[in-house]
């Protein structure tokens, strides 16, 4: 039988739902949109599962679909949809939560100021734990471009995070 099975796709989705949600959260900024994107990615990969000839690439297809759907969501927002703020999850203590939120907010603000490709490369490379080759394949760019965008993105983040608020 050609393609990945429904059972394999379901297992992959269940095992990686949180990481896919985290990937979307780094590209978008509200929980509802992130959940919608991840659900839609599953539906689309499920519909095209016969094209996933190698089951071990199922997660890569899901990640790529999450990135593409996140881009589409951002494009629609640029055309006029209202931006929503993302609520933070409950933390162990108020102090711990406050510090974590400040750091996360600063990183997200700095990430949003990067060029789109720099942000995508850094999110896939460091938050989705993808190799440079996987990032290149996911984004449809060369390995050299991944390295260049990554290097420039890290330099820009370093400057942004060190600058006084």
TrEMBL record:
Domain of life per record: Bacteria
Keywords, comma-separated and alphabetical: DNA-binding, Sigma factor, Transcription, Transcription regulation
GO biological process terms on file: DNA-templated transcription initiation
Residue span, RNA polymerase sigma factor 70 region 4 type domain: 105-157
One function term, GO molecular function aspect: DNA binding
Annotated RNA polymerase sigma-70 region domain residues: 13-77
Family note: Belongs to the sigma-70 factor family. ECF subfamily.
Name of this protein: RNA polymerase sigma-70 factor, sigma-E family
Species whose genome carries this gene: Streptomyces radiopugnans
